[in-house]
Write a structure and sequence with these properties.
The complex is a heterodimer of chains A (about 290) and B (about 350). Chain A has about 290 residues and is mostly helical. Helix content of chain A is about 75%, strand content about 5%. Chain A has one domain: ABC transporter involved in vitamin B12 uptake, BtuC (Orthogonal Bundle), CATH 1.10.3470. With about 350 residues, chain B is mainly α. Chain B has a single domain, classed as ABC transporter involved in vitamin B12 uptake, BtuC (Orthogonal Bundle). Chain B is globular, with a radius of gyration of 21 Å. The chains are: A mainly alpha (about 290), B mainly alpha (about 350).
Amino acid sequence: MNWIDTILQGVLLGGLYALFAAGLSLVFGIMRLVNLAHGDLIILAAYLILVIVSALGLNPFLAALVAMPVMFALGWLLQRVVLNRVLGNDILPPLLVTFGLSIVIQNALLQGFSADSQRIGAGALETASVDFGPVTLGVMPMLTFASAILVIVGLNQLFYRTAVGRAFRATSDDPVTASLMGIKPASVFAQATGIAMIVVTIAALYLGMRANFDPTIGPARLIYAFEAVIIGGLGSLWGTLAGGVIIGVAQTLGAAVNPEWQILAGHVAFLLVLLVRPRGLFPRAYD
Amino acid sequence: MVQDYRVLTRTPAATVAGIVALGLIVVGYALPAFAGRGLIQDLFFILTMLVLAQFWNLLAGYGGLVSVGQQAFVGLGAYALFGAAILGGWDPVAALILSGFAALLVAIPTAFFAFRLAGAYFAIGTWVVAEVVRLSVAQWKAVGGGTGTSLPRDAVDGMFGIETVKTLFDASNAAARDILAYWLALTLAIATIGGIYALLRSKRGLALAAVRDNIEAARAVGVDAVRMKWTVFLTAAFGTGIAGGLIYLQKGRVSPDAAFAVTDWTAYVIFIVVIGGIGTIEGPIIGVLVFFALQSLFADYGTWYLMALGMIGIAVMLFAPRGLWGLFSDKTGVQLFPIRRRLSGEKIKED
């Protein structure tokens, strides 16, 4: 068994998990919202891309670009109309509302697209790989990882270089004081969820090109995303990437020992990190 | 100062409710004599979901512990029962107590881990623990691994009480098992509601409500908040484990994916509690009846039914966060299981 290969594959897999998690991390970091529908929103975006690809005959990457503003609008509306009403100290209302949303999205997709598994075709890119001497890495996993890094760099630029980002950070630290400074938390939250949905679209693109998906697989993706966010620490996007990589490497190492242990090893790694650091590795925000 | 007052919790509505409840219990135990098998199975489903809902309500509504991992204890209860019956030759009815203890045994390390986490982290943490338990149990080849297994025939037919039920009602083996399971579920539900009500009326219940309302204030007046959380978490795990054992005793077949299903044993249970009204004993009772009615009326519509269920959950949370019972109770002031202490007396005399 080639350990370096296994670990590298795990790191690249972690890139996919970090993409799943980046949108969640953004929303969770800014408004402490546990969005149980996040996984299903990724699947919804994947179907949206699929529909655009087949209706307009576009390349998947272009189709994702078309899907982004749609998903942004959806996220913005969702936050304005539903989620802003349930934010507060009690975590139960958002938990329940997003759980209800998860069931609604899942079953609406089942109704619309049936339970057949689908895939976004990416042509030769699907199987292309590059030989690096002792290890061979797929182009698609590398592209995923690079996209994860780009997304995180982009979000960090947005956070620390722009007025919108300043409003995000201020609201995250203290919504009451931020609103004294003329920031409207409700509209900041809506923008944040909209941006998170753009990240969701990118995650959906890679999810759909790398593997088959069907309407019911959202929650399983959600749990990896949450693990990555929590391991990384609240409000830290690089932490989320680290969290994704830890889960990814643990899974490929577990699978290398015994294929049945893949998922279990990821969960155990999560529990071990939390046992040592209950607030994650790099928490930025305190609450 | 002469004490001429008393602290009361009883209300007229509660007295009526108590009498009605006693009547219902008598009817409930006598029901298999004149009810069909379908009704008994429906009631078994209602009663076991009610038990799960009461324990989740105790956790989240009173203990402030929003767990998404209760399916771990349902599954552990089921597998403890099957393991004891298949490998140890236990009588399945007697093995129910093992179901409770198996859940308790795993609940202790889970609590050590999960109580370090706050709020949302606690919810996700318990969910991951439940996944770990599910994946670990799926490795247990002696009880069928990932595909699951059935209760051995002789264990089911030789179960404690089954012969008595057969001669009493002249029933087949399968019908006798349903009746026995139903009686056990009824007993469990009565014990659960009675036990939780007794707990909430006791000094500990007062402490629990104080911790729920304001943890800092409660600690300031000397309530040991951590101990209250432990009590609630372990009690809920034990009860949920027994309920899980009982559910799969009746089903007769278990598999990891079914016994550890987050949808069936946690999501639906949360819906029941929230639709009925969280933080009350009446809420889960109303909730389970609504849930059952929706299910039996609309379950044939499949995905549309589930979509409607999701939307009802969202609507209740947005417009009636204290549930149907909360709406009713706010309007009328009626409480069937009152726990609020009131001062009562002609006058308070000064010496």
